[in-house]
C-alpha cells in the first residue's frame, strides 16, 4: 500500500469576496504546487454537520471518519486531553478563552498573550482560586486554556450552557453533545446556566470559578504590566464544550489498516489524534508562519519515513478569518503551497500509489468573522484519477464525486483508492 497524507487546513473554506474579484481566498491564492497534485485528482464538496455550523472538534472528527453525533461528548474532553490534563470519566472538562468584557457586555472573546504571560496567569489561578472542588487549569496557545474540575462531593454534569457568545451546545438522546457555532445576537454576557436540575452544582461551581479567576487576573502582574503598556487587558474567562465522559473513539490504525501519526501543534487536534490512537508528533505553533510551515514540513517528511499515514493540521487560516483578514488568509495559503506542498511534491511517490488528501474542518467567513454552515472543498490526489484544472469551493461544488456526501465519507473513500 502507498503512503497517505491527510491535511486539514482549519477554516480554509470561505465565501466569495468582492475585493478578490468575487473569488474566495482559496480560489484567489497562487498555488502552483497544488496544481501538481491536481493532475491526478478527484474533487468533493461534502456537508460536515447537517444544517448547523460546526466547531473545529466536530469538523476534525468528521474528516477523520468519526460521526460527531455518534461519538462527541463535548469539545472540552479533547482540549484537556491535548493539554495533558488527563480527564477522567465523571470529571468536567472545558475549553477556556482569556477574553475581555466591559461591564456585563462582551468586548473581545480572544485576548492574545505571550506564553510567559499565559503561564504566569495559569500559576496565579491554580494557586489563588478556591472553589468547592479540586480543579486543574492549564494554558495553551495565544488565548486558549483548558479546565478540568475533578469529581468530588457531587456528581458533575455536562448539561450546562456556555458563557461565550457565538457557541451553543446541543444534546442528543444517546448522551452525546456537540457545540455549534451560532451568530452573536447580543453582546450581553450571561452566567452559565444549568440545563437540567442535575447540573445546578456544576453551573454554580463554574460561575464561582469564573468570578474568582477574573479577580485574580485583574490583580495580577500581567494585567498591571499590560495596562502600563496600553495593551489589551484580559479580565474574563469564557468556558465552553463541557464534557464528563470519554468519547471512546475506535482505533484509527485498526479501522483503516495503516499506522497513523499526527503532526499537530494545538491541544484540540492533539487530543482528537490521541483519542483516535495516533502517534503524536508535537510541532508547537511558531509565531512566524513561514518558520512554522518549514518546521511542520520537516516533521511531516520525517513521519512519512516511519508511518503509513500522517495527519497534518494547519491552524493559521482560521485565525485570519476570525480577524477578518482575508488578504492574510490567501497569503497563508500561498505560503502553505510553496513550503509544505512544494516539499511534498518531491517526497510523495505518486506514481507508486501514494495519496494526498487536502480539505478543511469547516468554513470560516472572513467577512462575517465566524464559522458558517457550508460544505467543504476536498481534493484527493492519486495516480488513478484524471486531471482537474483548479481547486476551490466553486469547482469542488460543480465537479464533486457523489460517493463523498458527508465529511465522514472522505477517509473511507481515500483509504480504498
Q: What can be said about this structure in brief?
A:
The chain has helices at 25-28, 32-38, 56-63, 68-71, 75-82, 115-128, 200-218, 221-228, 252-256, 267-276, 289-304, 316-322, 326-347, 393-398, 410-415, and strands spanning 4-9, 41-44, 53-54, 92-102, 105-108, 135-139, 144-149, 167-171, 177-181, 236-243, 260-264, 279-282, 309-314, 355-359, 363-365, 370-372, 378-381. It is of the alpha+beta class and 417 residues long. The strands form 4 sheets. A 7-stranded mixed β-sheet has the order 2-17-14-1-13-11-12, with helices on both faces. Strands 4, 5, 6, 7 and 10 form a 5-stranded antiparallel β-sheet that branches. A 3-stranded antiparallel β-sheet has the order 3-9-8.
Any overview of this molecule?
The structure is a single chain. This protein is α+β, with helices and mostly antiparallel strands and 417 residues long. It has 2 domains: 4-71 and 248-415, Alkaline Phosphatase, subunit A; 78-243, no CATH class. Helix content is 35%, strand content 21%. It contains 15 helices and 17 strands. It has helices at residues 25-28, 32-38, 56-63, 68-71, 75-82, 115-128, 200-218, 221-228, 252-256, 267-276, 289-304, 316-322, 326-347, 393-398, 410-415, and strands at 4-9, 41-44, 53-54, 92-102, 105-108, 135-139, 144-149, 167-171, 177-181, 236-243, 260-264, 279-282, 309-314, 355-359, 363-365, 370-372, 378-381. The strands form 4 sheets. A 7-stranded mixed beta sheet has the order 2-17-14-1-13-11-12, sandwiched between helices. Strands 4, 5, 6, 7 and 10 form a 5-stranded antiparallel beta sheet that branches. Helix 2 (32-38) packs across helix 13 (326-347) and helix 11 runs parallel beside helix 13 (326-347). The model has no long low-confidence stretch (mean pLDDT 96).
